[in-house]
Design goal:
By secondary structure, the protein is of the alpha/beta class. It contains twelve helices and twelve strands.
Length: about 325
């Protein structure tokens, strides 16, 4: 194998999670260059990845330009003459690219709807954290799951941006807890009033400041939480993905919904507490693989019309207390 292409067009979380097996793949196929095909803007999470040799990026287009861009990408993939294409996406859009790549080996899941495009077919394994289950597709290559890390390169400029902001706010490293209440998926969002009450409990009963972290189209949620709080939180500045990662890298704990930021925190090695509603933590929580990550979930709770998820601010605070106590004890043990 001289050239291998992995296809995962997006979104951010899946683009990051798919890289879980890249270190193993590079070691087992040591002579191969590893390419990754992804759409804009999801390529940002893969910049300067230590095990990706080349990123192939599909530009974000609409209408006829979208069709033109797809034809251009298919031609490019065909010209590259890949030995192996791994279709991690397993959707018609990625299967089309896989089929026309004319790669000698085309690898995908046997249960995919158009699996005839693959001449190597993988079987899905047992249900587990999504980053771990990505290994299942490597079954036909006789590559099994190994201990892994998720990688995200934080730029020097982003670190300086965050350090300057923390200094201006007079906050020391690891003296703040980040709360990120947003999500592009409404049904994943824990009640904003619950976040407000939890933030008050943390600021009233611990030494930690609360920093409210927000992304595009999420600032209104932050304003709602702030208006419902009795104590005064610190509002994070506008950040891009890289700057947000730099902010997470320096915080004590991230509290968030189930989503991409929870997985990004795995890469930044930031402890987390994720609030789960109607998504499955067995699949989407990193807690089963990475001990610094935690979640709250009430199995069987009908969250269809109740986005408290059956989890009160007091329940969440008890878990925060337990995590902070453990982290403080670990710091003290390391210092001694």
């Amino acid at each position: 194998m001289k050239k291998v292409l992995v296809i995962q067009l997006g979104p951010f979380g899946d683009a990051l999670l798919t890289t879980s097996y890249f270190e193993t793949l590079k070691r087992r196929l040591s002579a191969a260059k590893l390419y990754y095909l992804v759409k804009e803007p999801y390529h940002k999470i893969l910049k300067d990845h230590p095990f990706i040799d080349n990123l192939i990026i599909i530009k974000k287009q609409k209408g006829l330009r979208y069709i033109s861009e797809r034809i251009k990408i298919i031609r490019k993939i065909h010209r590259e003459k890949f030995d192996l294409v791994i279709d991690q996406q397993n959707m018609p859009s990625s299967q089309q690219i896989t089929f026309f790549s004319h790669a000698k080996f085309r690898l995908g899941y046997a249960d995919a709807r158009l699996s005839f495009v693959y001449n190597l077919k993988a079987q899905r394994g047992k249900k587990r954290y999504s980053a771990s289950s990505k290994y299942d597709i490597l079954g036909p290559l006789e590559i099994k799951e190994e201990p892994y890390k998720l990688y995200f390169n934080i730029g020097k400029d982003s670190c300086q941006y965050v350090e300057k902001w923390l200094e201006h706010q007079n906050i020391n490293k690891q003296e703040y807890v980040c709360i990120s209440p947003g999500s592009p998926v409404k049904r994943k969002k824990w009640k904003l009033t619950n976040y407000a009450e939890l933030a008050d409990l943390i600021q009233e009963k611990t030494r930690y400041n609360i920093v409210l972290l927000w992304g595009p189209r999420e600032f209104q949620d932050i304003e709602t939480i702030r208006s419902r709080m009795k104590t005064e939180p610190i509002i994070a500045p506008a950040t891009d993905l890289n700057q947000a990662a730099a902010l997470l890298k320096k915080c004590k704990l991230l509290i968030c919904n189930d989503g991409g930021l929870n997985h990004l925190a795995v890469a930044t090695e930031t402890p987390t507490l994720a609030i789960f509603g109607n998504t499955d933590p067995e699949v989407w929580s990193p807690a089963s693989v990475f001990p610094r990550h935690h979640h709250l979930y009430i199995a069987g709770f009908n969250s269809e019309n109740d986005n408290s998820f059956g989890i009160s601010p007091e329940m969440a605070y008890e878990e925060v207390q337990r995590i902070l106590k453990y982290l403080d004890l670990k710091v003290a043990t390391n210092e001694n």
